[in-house]
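Researcher: Sequence recovery benchmark, item below. Answer with residues only.
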C-alpha cells in the first residue's frame, strides 16, 4: 500500500527520508498539478519557493520539475524566501498558485509542502481534498521534465522574490519614522527565512537592529523547534534583555508567524499580540473592517469588535478556514493563536514581517513601551486576560480520546462553571468568566493541544490540568 499523503492544518508535513521523500514529494506535486489543470490552468505560471531546512532547495526543484512536466510554467525562487513573500509573488506574477517547501515551525526532522491559491492564500478544505484525491499511488504516473531542460526552454524561470514584495510593503507602511525613532530592536530569525529582513528594511537611520540565529542551520540549535513561543524564544528574550532592547521580534522558520517580547525581555503571548495589532489598526490608525479569528484565539477581539462597532467572525483553526472568510469579508485583520496574522491590502496569508513592522509602528506612533500599550489594551477590553497552552504527544486510538472528551461532561473547569461546549474545531468549553478551554488534535503532528484563556490569573494552571484530565492524558 503506498504512503497516503494527507493535508493537515497547513499542508502536508512528514519526516525527511521516512515519509517525506523525493518520490512522495513528486507524487504530491502531481496531485497539485492535476488540480490546477482541472481548473483550466494549463500553460499558466505557478510560484515555487522553499525554506532553509535540510535539502529544501532540492525538494523545490523536484516540485518544479513535476509542474513543468505537466505543461505548467514555474517561477522558482532563487533563494530561500519567507512564506508571505512567496504568497505575494503569486499576485505580483499573476500566477495561479504556489507551492512552498517548508515545515514552518515543526522539529528539524521534518519538511513540508504548502499550497496556495491564485490569491496567495491557503486553499480551502474542499480544494485540499481534491488535491489529495488526485495524488497518484505510483511514481510511474508522475510527469517530470528535467530541471535543466525546463530552464533551457523557459518553463522554469529563476526569480528574485524580494523586489515585488518590498515595493508592496512600501504601499502599506512608511518605515521612515521607525528608522528615525532610535529604537533598539532584537530580532531572532530562528535560523530561518526571516534572517536579514528587518535589518534590510530598517537600515540607514537611528534605529538599531540586532539579529541572532540568522544563519542557516537546519538543526535549529538553542531551541526545540523554530516556533516563536516559549521555551524556544528564551535565548532570544535573554539577548533582548542583555542589549536593553525596546522590543523583541521573533519569526518562525518560514517567517509567516511572529512573536514579541516587551522592553523587560518578557514574552508577550500570541493572544495579547493579536489584541495589540487589532488595537493598532482600529484605535491608532483609525481604520474599520471585519475581524476574523479562530476559536483558539482571544476573546479580547470580540470585545474590541463591540467597542469599535466592527463584526467579528470565528472560524476553525488554520488559514484554510481564515483565508476564505478573510477574502469574503474584505477583513481588516485575520489571525490565529499560533502567531499568524493577515492584513487588509495584503494577501490573505500570515505575514510575520508586516506584522512585525506594524507592531514597531504602534510603538513609534504612540511613543509608548510595550507594557504601556498592553495596559491601554486591557483598559479597552475590561481587564487583563491570561493564556497558556500545553502540547502533549499521544499514541493509540484517537477516537478513544474523543469519546473520553465527549463523555466527560464537566460542570466546572478550574473552578469556573461551564456554560457551553463548541465543536467547530476540537472541543471548546466556554466558561462563566467569558474565558474558555480548548482541547484539539494538531492537524500536522500526533499532538493533543490544550489551551485556555481566562481573566483569572490564579486559575490558568487549574483549567489546563482539568483539560488534560478531560482529554484522558492524566
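Model:
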Amino acid at each position: 500500500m503506498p504512503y497516503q499523503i494527507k493535508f493537515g492544518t497547513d499542508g502536508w508535513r512528514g519526516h525527511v527520508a521516512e515519509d517525506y521523500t523525493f518520490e512522495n514529494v513528486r507524487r504530491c506535486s502531481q496531485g497539485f498539478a492535476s488540480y490546477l489543470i482541472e481548473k483550466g490552468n494549463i500553460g499558466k505560471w505557478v510560484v515555487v519557493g522553499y525554506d532553509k531546512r535540510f535539502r529544501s532547495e532540492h525538494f523545490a526543484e523536484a516540485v518544479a520539475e513535476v509542474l513543468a512536466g505537466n505543461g505548467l510554467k514555474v517561477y522558482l525562487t532563487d533563494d530561500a524566501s519567507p512564506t508571505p513573500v512567496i504568497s505575494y509573488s503569486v499576485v505580483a506574477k499573476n500566477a495561479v498558485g504556489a507551492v512552498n517547501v517548508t515545515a514552518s515551525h515543526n522539529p528539524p526532522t521534518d519538511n513540508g509542502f504548502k499550497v496556495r491559491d491564485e490569491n496567495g492564500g491557503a486553499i480551502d478544505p474542499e480544494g485540499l481534498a481534491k488535491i489529495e484525491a488526485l495524488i497518484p499511488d505510483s511514481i510511474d504516473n508522475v510527469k517530470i521534465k528535467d530541471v535543466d531542460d525546463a530552464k533551457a526552454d523557459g518553463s522554469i524561470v529563476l526569480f528574485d522574490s524580494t523586489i515585488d514584495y518590498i515595493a508592496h510593503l512600501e504601499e502599506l507602511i512608511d518605515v521612515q519614522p521607525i528608522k528615525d525613532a532610535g529604537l533598539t530592536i532584537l530580532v531572532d530569525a530562528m535560523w530561518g527565512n526571516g534572517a536579514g529582513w528587518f535589518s534590510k528594511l530598517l537600515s540607514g537611520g537611528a534605529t538599531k537592529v540586532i539579529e541572532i540565529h540568522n544563519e542557516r542551520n537546519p538543526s535549529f540549535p538553542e531551541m526545540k523547534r523554530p516556533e516563536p513561543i516559549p521555551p524556544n524564544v528564551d535565548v532570544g528574550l535573554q539577548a533582548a534583555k542583555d542589549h536593553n532592547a525596546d522590543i523583541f521580534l521573533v519569526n518562525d522558520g518560514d517567517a509567516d508567524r511572529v512573536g514579541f517580547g516587551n522592553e523587560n525581555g518578557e514574552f508577550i503571548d500570541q493572544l495579547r499580540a493579536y489584541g495589540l495589532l487589532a488595537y493598532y489598526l482600529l484605535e491608532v490608525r483609525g481604520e474599520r473592517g471585519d475581524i476574523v479569528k479562530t476559536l483558539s484565539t482571544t476573546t479580547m477581539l470580540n470585545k474590541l469588535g463591540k467597542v469599535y462597532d466592527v463584526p467579528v467572525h470565528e472560524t476553525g483553526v488554520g488559514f484554510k478556514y481564515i483565508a476564505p472568510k478573510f477574502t469574503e469579508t474584505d477583513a481588516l485583520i485575520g489571525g490565529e493563536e499560533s502567531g499568524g496574522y493577515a492584513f487588509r491590502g495584503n494577501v490573505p496569508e500570515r505575514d510575520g514581517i508586516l506584522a512585525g513592522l506594524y507592531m514597531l509602528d504602534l510603538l513609534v506612533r504612540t511613543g509608548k513601551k510595550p507594557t504601556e500599550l498592553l495596559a491601554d489594551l486591557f483598559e479597552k477590553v475590561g481587564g487583563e486576560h491570561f493564556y497558556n497552552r500545553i502540547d502533549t504527544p499521544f499514541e493509540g486510538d484517537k477516537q478513544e480520546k474523543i469519546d473520553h472528551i465527549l463523555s466527560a461532561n464537566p460542570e466546572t473547569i478550574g473552578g469556573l462553571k461551564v456554560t457551553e461546549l463548541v465543536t467547530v474545531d476540537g472541543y471548546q468549553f466556554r466558561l462563566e468568566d467569558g474565558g474558555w478551554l480548548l482541547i484539539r488534535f494538531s492537524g500536522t503532528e500526533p499532538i493533543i493541544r490544550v489551551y485556555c484563556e481566562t481573566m483569572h490569573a490564579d486559575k490558568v494552571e487549574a483549567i489546563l490540568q482539568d483539560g488534560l484530565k478531560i482529554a484522558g492524558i492524566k
